[in-house]
Write a structure and sequence with these properties.
The protein is of the alpha+beta class. It folds into 4 domains: 30-44 and 276-352, conserved putative lor/sdh protein from methanococcus maripaludis s2 fold (Beta Barrel); 48-56 and 201-273, Efflux pump adaptor protein, beta barrel domain (Elongation Factor Tu (Ef-tu), domain 3); 60-90 and 168-198, OB fold (Dihydrolipoamide Acetyltransferase, E2P); 92-163, Helix Hairpins, CATH 1.10.287. Helix content is 28%, strand content 36%. It has helices spanning 2-30, 92-127, 133-166; strands at residues 33-34, 36-38, 46-55, 58-62, 67-72, 79-80, 85-89, 168-170, 175-180, 187-188, 193-199, 203-210, 218-223, 226-235, 245-252, 267-273, 281-285, 290-291, 296-302, 305-310, 312-316, 320-324, 332-334, 345-346, 348-349. A hairpin with a 2-residue loop joins strand 13 and strand 14 (226-235). Helix 2 (92-127) runs antiparallel to helix 3 (133-166). The longest helix is centred in the first third of the chain and has 36 residues, at 92-127. It is elongated and about 120 Å long. The protein starts with a helix and ends with a strand.
Length: 352
């Protein structure tokens, strides 16, 4: 009996060991396959970024009063001159307000004349002691009130005339209409943007830098196999909370006034000297960069497992990015599919 028990225990142990080995083998076979990228030191001396051509001044245009648009005189992309009519509100209500204000002013002037005549009569009677001094003072007070009412009527008439003028929206300067977002029959509120005007004059290039990069003072615009010098004009006061980039505006150092090659809104390429850094930078595929709300990171492959490593983005190219962080040349990172990875996850390297 004891021999039977011993044999049974031995068989059970062998069976459990075999199951554990099978489970381990199955777990390894189910580990995701990742494509590796071997890090190499980046020795770039310049960075290249895309930029957008902008006008130095771009004005959003809106009516100062609310109303229904009765006429539209222009279209998007049209060149306009200063003072040219763009859109017009239905003027009927504003014309009636002017007429009402004119009638109020006429009534106020008539009341003022009556009050003046009444005061003159009371002063004459007061000299003959025919009325009391209090009655004369009351007549003088009525005259002051009539003058105040006339001033109010004059102000209301001026405001009504201004509103009638505001019913027509004119171009504030020479330029090109980037967009016209309102049409006839549309009711708009005061201050609602109905068009956007790019003022005539010099063009600028708008560039978005990674938040870790300070926009350089100088750069170059690569256009039609020529390089045009750029100089920094302004930098945004804060990093964009969604894209985590910093906007900068660069002015062309020399412009001859012919902006035919600089179409508004077109995407152009710019080049800047790489900012000095105490950290070693690396080139990685764009697919290797993972963003999960804690900043950009890459996934290092080490001993069959992956772990995230925070990095700072220096610049972004068409298919690659320049980054720096606590990495070393020769290490492997995951090239694509980083959104599926978890901290300390087992993986299989492709071609292993």
């Amino acid at each position: 009996m004891r021999a039977f028990v011993a044999c049974f225990a031995t068989a059970t142990a062998l069976l459990l060991t075999g199951c554990n080995n099978a489970a381990t083998s199955t777990s390894q076979s189910q580990a995701p396959i990742v494509k590796p990228w071997v890090l190499e030191t980046d020795n770039q001396s310049s960075i290249s970024l895309s930029g957008i051509v902008r006008a130095r001044t771009e004005s959003p245009l809106a009516f100062q009063i609310a109303g229904r648009i009765a006429k539209r005189f222009v279209d998007a992309g049209q060149t306009v001159t200063q003072g040219q009519p763009l859109l017009e509100l239905d003027p009927r209500d504003f014309q009636e307000r002017v007429q009402g204000a004119q009638a109020d002013l006429a009534a106020a002037n008539a009341a003022l004349r009556i009050a003046q005549a009444d005061l003159t009569r009371h002063q004459e009677l007061l000299r003959h002691n025919a009325v009391s001094k209090q009655a004369a003072e009351q007549a003088e007070l009525m005259l002051r009130e009539a003058r105040a009412r006339r001033e109010v009527a004059q102000t209301q008439l001026s405001q009504a005339k201004n509103a009638l003028d505001y019913a027509q929206l004119n171009a504030p300067a020479n330029g090109v209409l980037i967009e016209v977002s309102a049409d006839e029959g549309q009711v708009v509120a005061s201050g609602y943007t109905v068009a956007r005007l790019a003022h005539a004059g010099k063009r600028e290039v708008e560039v978005y830098f990674p938040e870790s990069t300070t926009p350089p003072e100088k750069g170059a615009l690569l256009l039609n196999e020529q390089s045009l010098a750029l100089t920094l004009r302004e930098t945004a006061g804060a990093v964009d909370p969604q894209s985590r980039t910093l906007r900068a505006r660069y002015a062309l150092v020399e412009q001859d006034g012919n902006n035919s090659d600089l179409q508004l809104g077109s995407v152009v390429r710019t080049r800047f000297n790489a900012p000095p850094s105490n950290e070693t930078s690396f080139v990685v595929p764009l697919g290797a960069i993972n963003e999960r709300g804690n900043g950009p990171q890459v996934w290092r492959i080490q001993e069959g497992k992956v772990n995230p490593v925070p990095v700072s983005i220096i610049s972004i190219e068409t298919e690659t990015a320049h980054v720096n962080g606590p990495l070393e040349s020769g290490e492997q990172i995951v090239a694509v599919g980083t959104h599926l990875l978890q901290n300390d996850m087992s993986v299989r390297v492709q071609d292993e």
